[in-house]
Design goal:
Layout lengths: L2 H15 L1 H19 L10 E2 L5 H4 L1 E2 L3 H7 L2 H21 L1 H10 L5 H12 L6 H11 L6 H8 L14 H26 L3 H9 L4 H12 L1 H13 L6 H7 L5 H4 L2 H11 L3 H29 L6
Helix pairs in contact: 4-17, 5-10, 6-10, 7-10, 8-14, 13-17, 16-17
């Protein structure tokens, strides 16, 4: 019996011995196949002049024409700039906040107080963007909104935050932080909980205070998780929050708020340019994959930690 046959026999024995485990795995595999891999057939549209009535088999093949159109599109250049700026703002401003929350919550001694704070900061995550957008549209309204009433009280002039290109990106970043910072802290809180308490006890015996313990024990202890989350965040650099921006923006702020996701939505459904919008989406996915690979390599080289 050859080596391949022996390996195949051992594999089949292993499968038969763990049929219950493979049965539990099957629904997840079916889900991935149906909703993740099967739709990839639609990528072909990016290389066609797609006709909705002819379908993929009957549409004309145009090769890389849609991608050439994308590269030479002034509108796409603005959209790409908006996407990168909003994503970078979210990374620079919002990524460190959940880490800080996890570090300081770990220093809270009273469990009731800690759980109360956690519950309060988690809750916004469970609200849909439709609800949150409606809430902030009301709060930021130039006529009667709470923020503008305060500005008037202080002697200033009302600001139309959601129709002014100078303020719209700031609103996007702030509302994203308000909704997701508490939820994102869960991963880091879990990582902190996994640190051995004996390290803190030993540090306390050596005379280290709470701040020193935080810097020398807690932060290094969660660094692997921080690197993992950062690499994943870099991979989604071109995902600036499509659902969020769709519920907040309007044509007056396309210049500062139109991102790749909303651009695909407008071109695909609004103008029915399915081939071009698919090409934009494929470009987005390819760049995201490339960023994850680059981020992982840089992390492995300089921090000696990586996903794979």
């Amino acid at each position: 019996m050859g080596v391949g046959a022996r390996n195949g026999s051992r594999l089949w024995k292993r499968v038969r011995g763990n049929l219950d485990m493979y049965a539990l795995l099957l629904p997840g595999l079916i889900f991935l196949l149906l909703f993740k891999y099967t739709p990839m057939y639609g990528i072909l549209i990016a290389f066609q002049d797609f006709n909705i009535f002819a379908g993929i088999p009957g549409s004309e093949w145009v090769g890389m024409e849609q991608f050439k159109k994308l590269i030479h599109s002034d509108e796409f250049a603005q959209v790409l700039t908006n996407t990168l700026l909003i994503s970078l703002y979210k990374i620079v401003i919002l990524f460190p906040i959940p880490i800080v929350i996890a570090l300081f919550l770990n220093e809270v001694g009273r469990m009731f107080f800690k759980r109360t704070i956690q519950t309060i900061i988690y809750l916004p995550h469970f609200l849909s963007w439709v609800i949150i957008s409606g809430l902030f549209v009301t709060i930021l309204s130039p006529t009667g909104g709470l923020v503008n009433e305060i500005i008037r009280f202080l002697g200033g002039q009302p600001i139309s935050f959601l129709t002014d290109n100078h303020f719209f990106r700031s609103v996007v970043v702030f509302t994203a932080g308000w909704k997701e910072v508490g939820w994102n802290a869960i991963v880091f809180i879990a990582a902190v909980a996994g640190i051995e308490q004996e390290q803190y006890e030993a540090a306390a015996i050596d005379g280290a205070g709470r701040i020193r313990q935080m810097i020398s024990i807690t932060l290094p202890g969660i660094m692997a998780t921080v690197v993992l989350m950062f690499i994943l965040r870099i991979g989604s650099l071109l995902e600036a929050g499509t659902e969020q921006i769709l519920t907040l923006y309007n044509p007056l702020v396309y210049k500062s708020g139109d991102v790749i996701g909303t651009f695909v939505y407008r071109m695909g459904l609004g103008q029915q340019d399915y081939s071009f919008s698919t090409a934009v989406g494929l470009f987005n996915s390819a760049v995201g994959f490339l960023l994850i690979v680059i981020g992982n390599r840089l992390s492995r080289k300089f921090l000696h930690r990586s996903i794979w």
